[in-house]
Amino acid sequence: MGLRFFLIEDDPVVRKMLEKLIHESGLGEVVGCAEDGLNVRAADLLHVDVVLIDLLMPGRDGIQTMKALRQEGFMGTFIMISQVENKEMIGQAYLHGIDTYIQKPINRYEVLSVLKRVANHMSAVRSLESIRQVLRGLEPQTAEARAVSKSSALEQQAQQLLLLLGVAGEAGSADVLLVVHWLAEQEAKGRPVRELPPLKELYAELVRREYGLPPAETIKEARAMEQRIRRLVLQAFTHLASLGLTDYTNPTFEHFAPRLFDFADIRRRMKELERGQTETECRMNVRKFLTAFFLELKRT
């Protein structure tokens, strides 16, 4: 089944070009368009898989529109269309919900590469869910089947933990699962990982294994993975802090806050939330989070 796309772009020429490329690629269909984000609601995107959205638009820009749609409950994928090369602004876009971006002026091959990568990623996630459902009712008969079952159980545990941390719907959850599988493979080879390698190297390796992209595309997708995971960690951090602010004896807060993060940072974030501060000044230790996340899975 093809993907359903929605375009939010103020330039009619770009909209037409994207619609033509999506149609010609065979990846799906464009089910709706808007020239700005002011009048788009999550209710308009009920059957949409991917939203391609311009960063700079009159009225309400792409980041503001994404934040509003996320708050209204849209859980699909955002691909940003950007003529801006400012790293801080692109970073903010990742923090607020994009999964990857396409640089303007529009290049046919880049668009197709990004769309195919996103489609393959979404297809892989759906396939893994189907495999999990089938394996739940099967008794493994072979070593290979037992290995698949063990991998499936690990994924289920990871999904449950992501749900507890309030980030199961984040795009970075699929990337965290890739990290978890990599760590499990290292242990199976007798190389337990006490500390992750440099994250940029790890992300590049995971992208090469998962997508088999050329070097330039590998670097770009590794950066996108880095931003998605960072956004997930930030959301988990804020979720735990909000639980502690509401109820300091909350079991999820008590168990995970000091294990996944520096507790002093959690306390600072709680004070920020108490003041109504949406952005945090705390620094995230992503490496610590990923390592501690995997260790928590081993305890269950």
Walk me through what this model shows.
With 300 residues, the chain is α/β, with parallel strands linked by helices. The chain has eleven helices and five strands. It has helices at residues 12-25, 62-71, 87-95, 108-136, 143-164, 172-188, 199-211, 215-246, 251-260, 263-274, 286-299, and strands at residues 3-8, 28-34, 50-54, 77-82, 98-103. Strands 2-1-3-4-5 form a five-stranded parallel β-sheet, sandwiched between helices. Helix 1 links the parallel strand 1 (3-8) and strand 2 (28-34). Helix 8 (215-246) crosses helix 10. The chain is globular and about 55 Å long.
Question: In short, what is this structure?
Answer:
It is built from 11 helices and 5 strands, in the order βαββαβαβαααααααα.
| Overall form | globular
Helix content: 55-70%
**Order of H and E elements:** EHEEHEHEHHHHHHHH
User: Overall mean pLDDT score?
Assistant: 84
Order of neighbouring strands in the sheet with most strands: 2-1-3-4-5
Structural class: alpha/beta
The value of Rg in angstroms is 20 Å
Question: What distance lies between the first and last C-alpha atoms, to the nearest angstrom?
Answer: 36 Å
Strand residue content: 5-15%
Number of helices: 11
The major β-sheet equals: 5 strands, parallel
Number of DSSP-assigned strands = 5
* Unreliable segments of 5+ consecutive residues: 141-149
Distinctive features:
alpha/beta, single chain
Chain-wise SSE layout:
Elements lengths: L2 E6 L3 H14 L2 E7 L15 E5 L7 H10 L5 E6 L4 H9 L2 E6 L4 H29 L6 H22 L7 H17 L10 H13 L3 H32 L4 H10 L2 H12 L11 H14 L1
Parallel strand pairs: 1-2, 1-3, 3-4, 4-5
